Amino acid sequence: MKKALLPFCLLALLAALVSGCTNTSKLVSRGLKAEVTSIVRAPDGSVTASWRVTNDNIVAYIFNRVRAKIYLNGTYLGLLTNDTPLAIPANTMSVRSGPVTGGDPAARRALDAAVTQGSASYRVDSQVTICIYDDTFEESKLTAAGTVTVKAE
């Protein structure tokens, strides 16, 4: 009888150990989506991106920090950074805009082509810091892709 219980106990112990080591960031960020809604190039050459975070969950979130790498037609455009806390209520969305920094001559060419066309395909890889409770934070990665409006002022 003891020999029959030993494999069961070992299996239960292994399952408990593996489940205790899972990555919670995917659980926390499930139902969250960060998308770019428009890109605008100013006369001085600076670039601003508008973006929204959609929360399909039944709980609200606070993003303490967002770092989003934006790619336009497959070319790295630059980095959008937001260090101002952003509240995302349950079952709704929040919208922000901010400067896109970085980029190189290839990014400027991709942006020029997109301005001419009026839109472009994009991908955004976001690293977000989510405030879970008081001083408890969780780092999560969000990725989105689609078509974005691109214009010059």
Structure report:
The protein has 153 residues and is of the alpha+beta class. It has a single domain (24-152), classed as Immunoglobulin-like. 24% of the residues lie in helices and 55% in strands. A seven-stranded mixed beta barrel has the order 1-2-6-4-3-7-8. A hairpin with a 2-residue loop joins strand 3 (61-72) and strand 4. It is elongated and about 65 Å long. It starts with a helix and ends with a strand.
Write the layout of secondary structure elements.
Layout: H1 2-20, H2 25-29, E1 32-41, E2 47-55, E3 61-72, E4 75-82, E5 86-88, E6 92-101, H3 105-117, E7 119-133, E8 136-152
Parallel strand pairs: 1-8
Antiparallel strand pairs: 1-2, 2-6, 3-4, 3-5, 3-7, 4-6, 7-8
Observed structural traits:
8 strands; single chain; Immunoglobulin-like; 24% helix; 153 residues; alpha+beta; elongated
